[in-house]
């Protein structure tokens, strides 16, 4: 693994903006021929944690890269303006200043802040002039079972409130029933409701039954214009896993090979350790290449992950591990 493209001042080098995925007509032949060899996928996934190892300065650089790809998230029923303001402060200064100074990484921020609709205005105000986008979960998150017209209206309201990214949830029964036309039509209308805001399609992969369904749902959402495909809401019993990630990123690679448009990937839920982030980064590098290791094409949906990364960076600088409470999120 090579080190990320970050300058001595701690800023990533600019990356050429990708044209948005415009989508395409639903190709049912392509969808129905998509398969997933579960045993082979699981064997490959088991090898991933031991295949790549980075140490010392290289590991610190990659952990800083991981921070720049985090959608720092709070999606709790007891969210308040104060909590969101503190979370945004953490997004702007994700690691203690003394640690960043020792690493020469001033200017490092998270990729985005993700909140419920009701907290968008607070987040936008707190992040003003930082360049950190606000993402909002929408469409009856997490179940996605509210009346359809209200789900579409919620997208519009979130965009109007200032969200630059919208994380929508698909209707799982369309996948489980093999109703690909219904899934395509739903995703297409949600993409249109987002306007200029980028849309992340949450597949809730833990509720789709099979890896084949994951592969087919991924393709259909990309055909309908999704800018990102995302594993989970974080509220399911099974969230991001390496087998699911392998299936989804290979669908992304297949879509790019056929259409020339890059679609982003966001694993969410269950990624809480620094070492796990390194496994995901190595997987993306192996399967999709360096271009996908930028915030416009890859994000971690996480909150506690940042605390563990900060703890590992402090150990790199001082040689000592600190208690978790020294790295609070908000």
Write the topology of this structure.
Layout: H1 28-33, H2 38-51, H3 56-67, E1 70-73, H4 81-92, H5 97-103, E2 112-115, H6 120-126, E3 134-137, H7 148-161, E4 165-169, H8 172-176, H9 180-194, E5 198-202, H10 211-223, E6 228-230, H11 242-259, E7 264-266, H12 274-287, E8 300-302, H13 304-318
Parallel strand pairs: 1-2, 1-8, 2-3, 3-4, 4-5, 5-6, 6-7
Question: Concise description?
Answer:
This protein has helices at 28-33, 38-51, 56-67, 81-92, 97-103, 120-126, 148-161, 172-176, 180-194, 211-223, 242-259, 274-287, 304-318, and strands at residues 70-73, 112-115, 134-137, 165-169, 198-202, 228-230, 264-266, 300-302.
Report on the architecture of this protein:
It is a single chain. With 330 residues, the chain is an alpha/beta fold. It has one domain (28-327): TIM Barrel. The protein contains 13 helices and eight strands. It has helices at 28-33, 38-51, 56-67, 81-92, 97-103, 120-126, 148-161, 172-176, 180-194, 211-223, 242-259, 274-287, 304-318, and strands spanning 70-73, 112-115, 134-137, 165-169, 198-202, 228-230, 264-266, 300-302. Strands 7-6-5-4-3-2-1-8 form an eight-stranded parallel beta sheet, with helices on one face. Helix 10 links the parallel strand 5 and strand 6. Helix 2 (38-51) crosses helix 11 (242-259), helix 9 (180-194) crosses helix 10 and helix 10 (211-223) packs parallel to helix 11. The radius of gyration is 19 Å and the shape is globular. The chain starts with 27 loop residues before the first helix and ends in a 12-residue tail after the last helix. The model is unreliable at 1-14 (pLDDT under 50).
